[in-house]
Design brief:
Rossmann fold; 6-stranded parallel β-sheet; 3-stranded parallel β-sheet; 17% strand; binds NADPH dihydro-nicotinamide-adenine-dinucleotide phosphate
């Protein structure tokens, strides 16, 4: 079998288009322009690239983009004061603090200082609790993107066996909650899981969010399964740096029914979902109907 490739790049472009339409309607009908504030502390080069991309795509969607770059040695109190100002600013509908933060800052404290309705990353403890109890939450962008692709590819997920490999707070755990809410039978695997291969082979939906290059191989995939590869790993091969996922694409795509590639799978969906969350947050803040298909 050769798997169908789930094209995250094309899907993300579609989502961005839907967001831009929603933004244009908000402006035309209500005079509202959604605004996203992104805060970067320090000079991590990878984070700077993410923040630049986020700002560019925010503007392309017709939203206002506010960028705050703080020095690495900024006192935590100054960051908290900035968040308090953004919480109170009606032009700001979404706030994202780029992680990781410098070591002298308490990331939990900082994230939990964001007004939950503006927490477009979905990391605030209130949003975590809302998602876990099946209530309307701001949902973390990467798992939201994975869910959108799964729904698009499979339609109903009800009753399917889903295995999520990885239990981080930003990907694995919220992914498992979302799949549970879709009535999947969910198994969360991690570094202590015994016989990972046989656990994975039971999966109709296999989500890999581990951070280990190509560790999920074709023999661990159930024939016909849908495989979502969240991993982004840089490896040196033939003297070049290449991006690979947590799934060995060559062998897994021989067995799976559908699979996301790396790059071009989950990655592009993450920023698209950040824009979707900002639009959703704006609609919720103004008591307006939410755009269809962009939130759960
Ligand atoms: P974390 O390092 O926070 O979590 C990794 C998880 O994998 C942990 O739960 C860990 O288990 C588990 N794990 C590690 N080794 C094994 C193993 N041998 N067998 C089974 N499970 C294992 O990573 P993240 O969740 O933040 O990210 C995962 C991957 O996704 C990374 O490659 C990251 O770059 C990528 N990513 C991609 C995004 C995108 O936009 N596409 C966004 C976010 C992340 P334990 O808990 O027991 O230690």
């Amino acid at each position: 079998m050769t798997a169908r490739i789930i094209d995250g790049k094309a899907f993300a472009a579609r989502v961005r288009g839907q967001v831009a339409e929603g933004v244009a309607r908000l402006k035309a009908d209500h005079g509202i322009t959604p605004g996203l504030a992104v805060v970067l502390v320090g000079e991590d080069p990878a984070s700077e690239v993410y923040v630049r991309n986020k700002g560019k795509q925010t503007l392309e969607a017709g939203m206002a983009s506010f960028e705050y770059k703080l020095a690495a040695d900024t006192p935590e109190a100054d960051l908290l004061a900035l968040i308090a100002r953004l919480n109170a600013d009606p032009a700001v509908n979404g706030i994202l603090v780029q992680l990781p933060l410098p070591g002298h800052m308490n990331a939990d404290l900082v994230i939990n200082a964001i007004e939950p309705g503006k927490d477009v990353d979905g990391f605030h403890i209130l949003n975590v609790g809302l998602l876990g109890t099946g209530q309307k939450a701001m949902v973390p962008c990467t798992p939201l993107g994975c869910l959108m692709m799964l729904r698009d590819h499979l339609g109903s997920l009800s009753g399917l066996n889903a295995v999520v490999v990885g239990r981080s707070n930003i990907v694995g755990k919220p992914m498992a909650q979302l799949l549970l809410a879709e009535s999947c039978t969910v198994t969360v695997a991690h570094s202590r899981t015994r016989d990972l291969a046989s656990v994975c082979r039971g999966a109709d939906i296999l989500v890999a969010a581990v951070g280990r290059p190509e560790m999920i191989t074709g023999d661990m995939v159930k024939p016909g399964a849908t495989v979502i590869d969240v991993g982004i790993n840089r490896v040196e091969r033939d003297g070049k740096t290449r991006l690979v996922g947590d799934v060995d694409f060559a062998s897994a795509s021989e067995v799976a029914g559908a699979i996301t590639p790396v790059p071009g799978g989950v990655g592009p969906m993450t920023i698209a979902c950040l824009l979707a969350n900002t639009l959703t947050a704006t609609c919720r803040a103004h008591g307006l109907p939410e755009p269809e298909g962009l939130a759960v």
